[in-house]
Specification:
10 helices, six-stranded mixed beta sheet, alpha/beta, globular
């Protein structure tokens, strides 16, 4: 494409979703990435589709996106390796159980089905869990996908709609309506969307998106032993220790019968290597809920650098100081869940149309004019 109307920088699941949405609305889109579709942060993620509600605006974006996911999965579910396993938010004590009950109420008020399980019901629902738990909240509509497969599928959809891709060439700079490549070439367009994840700040230094390290592991195949995604009620709330590490169990069943194990957050760590001590902490947290995991073979572990923002919210909208420059980044661990909602929100903002949810909590201007 010699004269794109929009250049989207970053072909992770968020950038690819934005590219497809904009192309479907009549824009001529070029999707560029130094790797390929789903090759960066997207490749390292867990792929959960989950309604998180740590704030009202977070839930707004999740629910907007999850409804779009339903439409996508109706046609592409097999390609996405989708499993609608549901999520069990597991409470280990009465305090966590109270938080779980409040979550169930918040989701139910928004029309998102969630039911509270007693310890006996929980044991019958997910026998792999240890006895003695206080209960859980079950969200039946949650699920998991394989994010790189979705990003690749979206790139294929983009070209089928008449858009174009340019992969394998690093981007060195962003200008007003232009992108500079490492080759020295300059690509011009009416608008540029930066969906570059952890590389955002290198391209736009005034946007405070920073890497938050996470460790993951996956087991050998054990079909039929885990029915649901199991998440500790401490997920997203666990406080970091003196080493900047916060750990809360999140274990997913994969279609292969494997168990995907997380999760942790660690700031201020630039080294992407697996840290055995951190990995051990992640595994201990998961085993504390699912004792059977201690007898399983872990066949691979890896890390990912998730793009985070100072207030924990994604950065979606117009750059306040750079004309014709837009952002869709900073989603941390919710990029998969919120990819389609982000694409809708951004496309509406770019078109000057009313948005389905309030865009202000995500505005890039909050960091420059707060």
């Amino acid at each position: 494409m010699t004269h794109p109307d929009v250049i989207v920088v970053g072909a992770g699941i968020v950038g690819a979703a934005c590219a497809v949405e904009l192309q479907a609305r009549g824009r001529q889109v070029l999707l560029v990435d130094r790797l390929g579709p789903g090759g960066g942060t997207t490749a390292a993620g867990m792929g959960h589709l989950v309604a998180l509600d740590e704030s009202a605006d977070e839930l707004d974006l999740c629910l907007l996106s999850l409804r779009q996911w339903d439409r996508y999965l109706a046609e592409h579910g097999q390609r996405a390796e989708h499993v609608r396993c549901g999520t069990l938010w597991v409470a280990e004590d009465d305090e966590q159980l109270a938080h779980a009950a409040a979550r169930a109420e918040r989701l139910a008020r928004r029309g998102w089905h969630a039911d509270q399980l007693s310890p006996m019901q929980l044991a019958a629902t997910e026998p792999a869990l240890r006895p003695g738990l206080a209960g859980a909240v079950r969200v039946l509509s949650d699920g998991v996908v394989y994010p790189p497969a979705v990003a690749r599928d979206l790139a294929i959809q983009l070209t089928a709609l008449g858009g174009a891709t340019l992969f394998g060439t690093p981007i060195t700079g962003i200008g007003a309506g232009c992108v500079h490549l490492q080759t020295g070439e300059r690509l011009d367009a009416r608008d540029v969307v930066v969906a570059a994840g952890c590389a955002t700040t290198a391209l736009l230094p005034d946007m405070p998106v920073f890497p938050r390290k996470g460790h993951l592991a996956i087991t050998d195949r054990y079909p039929g032993r885990l029915r649901h995604q199991v998440v500790s009620m401490g997920y997203g709330q666990a406080a970091a220790g003196a080493d900047g590490l916060a750990v809360a169990a999140n274990v997913q069943p994969r279609p292969t019968g494997q168990w995907l194990i997380g999760s942790c957050r660690q700031d201020g760590i630039a080294d992407a290597a697996v840290d055995p001590k951190v990995l051990a902490a992640v595994l201990r947290s998961a085993i504390a809920l699912l004792p059977e995991l201690a007898r399983m073979q872990v066949i691979r572990s890896w890390t990912g650098m998730r793009p985070a923002s100072p207030d924990g919210r994604p950065v979606i909208g117009a750059h306040p100081g750079r004309p014709r420059t837009w952002l869709a980044t900073g989603h941390e661990g919710l990029g998969v869940t919120t990819a389609f909602g982000t694409a809708l929100l951004l496309a509406d903002l770019m078109a000057g149309q009313p948005t389905a949810i309030d865009p202000d909590p995500y505005s890039p201007a909050r960091f420059l004019y707060d």
